[in-house]
Amino acid sequence: MSAEQFDDPTLDESPDLYQLLADAFDSLLSVTGAQIVAALTIVGVASDVLAQSLLVQVFEDTLTLIRENADTSQPEAQQLITDLEQAIDAAGLTVDLSVPVLLVGLLGLAILVEAIRIVAVRAFANDELDGVPRALAARRLPIATAYGFVAVILIYLAIVIVSALTFFLLFVPALFVYLGLLFVRQEIAVSDKGPIQAISGSWGLVKGNRWTVLGLAVVLLVVAIGTWLPASLLAGPAGTVGAPLLSGVNLAFGTALVTETYVQLREDTETAAQSAM
Q1: d(C-alpha 251, C-alpha 106), whole Å
Q2: 168-198 pLDDT, tens digit each
Q3: Can you tell me the distance from the alpha carbon of 249 to that of 38, in angstroms, rounded to the nearest whole number?
Q4: Using CA atoms, how far apart are residues 209 and 34, in angstroms rounded to an integer?
Q5: How far apart are CA 12 and CA 255, in angstroms?
Q6: Which of 199, 203, 255 is CA-nearest to residue 224?
Q7: Cβ within 8 Å of residue 175, ≥6 positions away
Q8: What is the 3-state secondary structure (H, E, C) of the chain?
Q9: Could you tell me if 111 and 144 are in contact, meaning their C-beta atoms sit under 8 angstroms apart?
Q10: pLDDT tens digit sequence for 33-65
């Protein structure tokens, strides 16, 4: 792609990524950051418990099916039964609920995570670091959460479809789409836009700034890997809390960094537009 597609000639300079990182760390280490991480950790623990419970339910149903319909005298069946029993015994904290209830619970928690991230975006965008103001958090929160959840689904579908159609291009088009839609949640949370308007607004804001946004995406990837690796090594009670905690830190920091970049890009774009008038 040409430089004109990535760089906006109306902007004198790109945002300072190092300063954005410093601001994001300040946000993460603030009272507001701690509140966001705590909320995401609690929801993460609950999600893990429900996911483990769902997996155990599936394994137990599979065991019942095998014992009732298969020839358990065969070595293959015996080995499968042993493997399933070991997987059930190795499962962490679980709750005894039906599969439909567990699925509804997981969906509800996913929506709750979106609500928390909407609140985080608003707090970080308004530089509210001494705690999330109740009025800011509650403003149109149900509708913003619904918009954000729908937008996330649309984005994932778009990336999956583009990836499937252009896999021979090494997923470059999918990356292009991902970068263009990176600020959709910010557009919904801060500017009160609907999903389609937010997608259009994010695409327009990223246009001409894709090198900056690409650098941002690389940082997000590095941070995600840096938190996932130690989380994957945790097991037992430590993993039950430690993995969601690290995931919460990753989500909170990523939200702060993307929001800081969004605010800076929007200010730069507005300034450039006023100068051109």
Answers
A1: 18
A2: 676 788 889 999 999 999 999 999 999 999 9
A3: 9
A4: 31
A5: 26
A6: 255
A7: 217
A8: CCHHHHECCCCCCCCCHHHHHHHHHHHHCCHHHHHHHHHHHHHHHHHHHHHHHHHHHHHHHHHHHHHHHCCCCCHHHHHHHHHHHHHHHHCCCCCCCCHHHHHHHHHHHHHHHHHHHHHHHHHHHCCCCCCCCHHHHHCCHHHHHHHHHHHHHHHHHHHHHHHHHCHHHCCHHHHHHHHHCCCHHHHHHHHCCCHHHHHHHHHHHHCCEHHHHHHHHHHHHHHHHHHHHHHHHCCHHHHHHHHHHHHHHHHHHHHHHHHHHHHHHHHHHHHHHHHHC
A9: no
A10: 999 999 999 999 999 999 989 988 888 888 888
Distance (Å, rounded) from C-alpha 188 to C-alpha 210? 20
Q: Where are the domains of the chain?
A: 3-276
CB-CB contact of 54 with 93 (8 Å): no
pLDDT confidence bin for 88, thresholds 50/70/90: confident
pLDDT tens-digit readout, 193-217 = 999 999 999 999 998 888 889 999 9
Q: Rg of the Cα trace of the chain?
A: 22
How many residues are there in the chain? 277
To the nearest 10°, report the CA torsion of 28, 136, 251, 110.
Answer: 150
The label of the residue with tokens 């155990």 reads: 56
